[in-house]
Write a structure and sequence with these properties.
The chain is mainly β. Helices cover 1% and strands 43% of the residues. The chain folds into 2 domains: 107 residues, no CATH class; 155 residues. It has a 19-stranded parallel beta sheet that branches. It has a 5-stranded mixed beta sheet with strand order 4-3-2-6-7. Strands 1-5 form a two-stranded parallel sheet. The two termini are 36 Å apart.
Amino acid sequence: MNKTTIITLLLIFSISYAENDMLTLYGEHELRSRGEDSEANSYNASRNNAYYQGSMDQVSIWHRSFLSSEVSSLETISDYSATNLIAYWSMDNGTGTTIVDETGHGYNGTLINGPTWVDGPTTSSGISSGSTINLSSYTNNEFLNNGDLTLSNVTVNGPGVFVVFGNLTLESNTIINKNIKIICSGNLTVSDSQLGTDLNSAVVIYSNGIATYTNSTIYGLSISNGSSITLNNTTFYGGILNYSSTFALQGSTQITGSVVSNYSLDFQEGSTSVSKGSLPPFFRLDIGLNSIVVPGSYLE
């Protein structure tokens, strides 16, 4: 977890569930690390001098176990008297060396070794039309949206990260310019839009729900981890990494680059094609690809 920005951090202590009764660390609803590396093995034990390096916000400690599917529901805590909630630090102070326990249990924290207060990512939700979003105007160039978001005839300028915790719709000549990572936890719908401007000015797109591209042009890398991905009348330059069980190409879709898929492609209709081509230069970028993906590989 070296130098990693965590938007929401949950420290979950489980007596009956976690391995060896250790602290388990979750970030953005995924298991990130376990207590045997950098955490103490009990509430009051000595540490092993391997301290967390990065940013944290909204830390909670619970005296119960959680399924991984439950963790995302804890990212925003409004009931400070919830059963088995031991402590919750929203970290909204902004100054000082004390972080207040919002539960009223009195477990206020003391900051040591001089950590720096910074503004969290700007959050928004809803519909944006006919506007320009400059990621450079957001803290750490991170745009965070809690809920579904629709961008219609919107230009997004990078570099930076565009995160939507919900469904994301890009439509009506929306343009996503270069060096932007798009992370969507829900369904991704792209229609009549352009993502990236060329292979040297590409985007990285990660979708965890249904991904649908229609009448659009894409330069970059698409990682699909939902139930399906469909490209209809879409021109795609770059790479597609697919974990979805349904992968359909429709209309006059043209893919030039590399396709790596856990499942077969379904050429459904029209003049669809996949041809070998170059990949965007993603070297030196941490984009979370599995080791099976080799730059320049080609699977049709």
